[in-house]
Amino acid sequence: MANEYGAEQIQILEGLEAVRKRPGMYIGSTSERGLHHLVYEIVDNAVDEALAGFCSVIDVSINEDNSITVVDNGRGIPVGIHEKAGIPAVEVVFTILHAGGKFGGGGYKVSGGLHGVGASVVNALSEWLEVEISRDGKVYRQRYERGQVVYKLKEVGKTDQTGTKVTFKPDAEIFDTTVYNFDTLKVRLRETAFLTKALKINLNDKRQDPVVERTFHYEGGIKEFVEYINRHKDPLYSKVIYCEGEKDNILVEVALQHNDSFNESTYSFVNNINTPEGGMHLTGFRSAITKVFNDYARTNKLLKEKEDNLSGDDSREGLTAIISIKIEDPQFEGQTKQKLGNSEARSAVEGIVTEQMTYFLEQNPSIAKIIINEAVLAQRARIAARKARDVARKSNLSDSMALPGKLADCSDKNPEKCEIYIVEGDSAGGSAKTARSRATQAILPLRGKILNVEKARIDKILVNEEIKAMITAFGTGIHDNFDISKLRYGKIIIMTDADVDGAHIATLLLTFFYRFMPELIRQGHVYLAQPPLYKLEKNRKVWYAYSDDELDKILKEVGRDTNNKIQRYKGLGEMDPEQLWETTMDPERRILLRVAIDEENESEIDLTFNTLMGDKVEPRREFIEANAKFVKNLDI
Ligand code: 28F
After folding, report:
1. Can you spell out the DSSP letters for 568-631?
2. 89 CA distance to ligand 1 middle (Å)
3. What is the CATH number that goes with domain 17-217?
4. Where are the domains of the chain?
5. Which residues surround ligand 1 with Cβ inside 6 Å?
6. To pair with 120 at 20 to 30 A between CA atoms, which of 244, 360, 532, 598?
7. pLDDT tens, residue by residue, 422-466
8. What is the pTM of this model?
9. Ligand 1 atom at minimum distance from 89 CA
């Protein structure tokens, strides 16, 4: 048989070659993150089949060789010859770039990973991929290697089931690592299950003996998601409030419940994709609840006539909420293209939440009273904090922006060049002030442990000296008033001792940043300094080691003998200014860890802080034993 390439095939090869040449363009990166994206792309296709109403179970397995198998019980990808392409539809799905929803009849592709590029990209980036389809009583199979067809679609058996099974092995030529992380998949698949009511997702790790298996199945959907997020907190009332509706062809679902903490944990999703930067759907939600709470408070005299309206921050104190919308043509804006721009989404969410929340409060007056009273308390605390600040300001006779006395500021005024070191303790602060490069490095020493913002209300937080000092030094303001353009330093560097106390202080600081100015972290301005653990001296030469492994390596090079003088640093205070400069502050030589939010799993970060910093001791112990994941080593 002649095996000539037609125009179609050439186009296909060029398309998939482009994916292999520039994988980052299609899946974001070739790091561990990109590796996991492959799974989400395939799972998302199965989720689409579930959203279309034809699939109820998805099985995901990590196989022994780190290949992945995804099985659904949907209709099975069509196998008939695709009219335009002249090949089976399934081959179109796996070999033509962006084949996604464009070929489908009717419905639209709603779910989809960050890049929503589909099965052909996974195929192009896999050493091999096999698809098996059960449909019309038959089982069909096709295999590809690095995106290229190995054999034509063939019938391999009979069946009375329907569905699609895909197995792929990520290409080690493409990815930095090809080892899957069970927990990463677990968190994401659990989230997908919460967002897709009644869909059952099984996850198996076949690399373990016995096989590790988890099932995610939530009849209550995002209602159960809210309960899950609040599971280590104390809710103010037992019901989860739920609103659902459709407007302008946009499906809207909202679930919320207040807890006795002072923080907001709201997560928004568009077509099952997390939108950490929010956008129109989030804006619509926020204006709706602020308005509904104020209206209810006024009508029922829970706010006195002369009292101010509740602010957005007041109405969201202790709020846990999920906003999930499905929209046909989502437009993403902003730097990272993660902010929903469709203005019709705003009015859809605002309209539905306003109507249904108003009704809910009227029907549940005792819950309404709890919510509004809490918001009124938050408002009073906020006003008290403002008054306290005003008094402090007047007694100081200086303007509101007066920089804190302990701050040794830098002379350069260009924020991009400037950095601020937040230093544990006055003595290390003193060394850092001596050591620093005055033009661009500012030093703010902190005394002892800083306030745990996870356990205090805003009025207590804003009178805390250390917190006040940081807020004024950074210049950005907090919460609703946060303005990144006012940031006075491009890098905010936490410098604490390399011991348990130091780690605790760093966590307290990160908690404060995450709760009050999360954009600082999101936009990559927050860093952890890495002081060395050891100093090794030999024959008047000096080495610094930042870990035990590194010390071992150095010792291997220089030889283990009696001329070695090894010093273990117990704290920054043991270093003289010159050593501190050389090892930890000199931009040419230091190591900085940039703090990042794993946006894929943001609801877990929230849990991380709550678990580490909240009141309940048991979950905290478990967590410390299990992992420590909110800091990523990106910038060395
Ligand atoms: C393990 C991953 O990918 N499941 C899928 C379907 C079902 C249909 C479909 C998919 C047809 C031509 C685009 C079936 N019957 N699991 C999956 N299940 N795709 S992907 O159609 C795709 C279109 O090209 C399907 C009738 N209509 C659609």
Report:
1. E--SGGGS-HHHHIIIII-TTT--EEEP---GGGHHHHHHHHHHHHSS-HHHHHHHHHH---S-
2. 9
3. 3.30.565.10
4. 17-217, 222-385
5. 42, 45-46, 49, 70, 72, 74-75, 77-78, 89, 92-93, 103-104, 164, 166
6. 598
7. 998 888 999 999 999 999 999 999 986 788 888 888 888 888 889
8. 0.79
9. 12
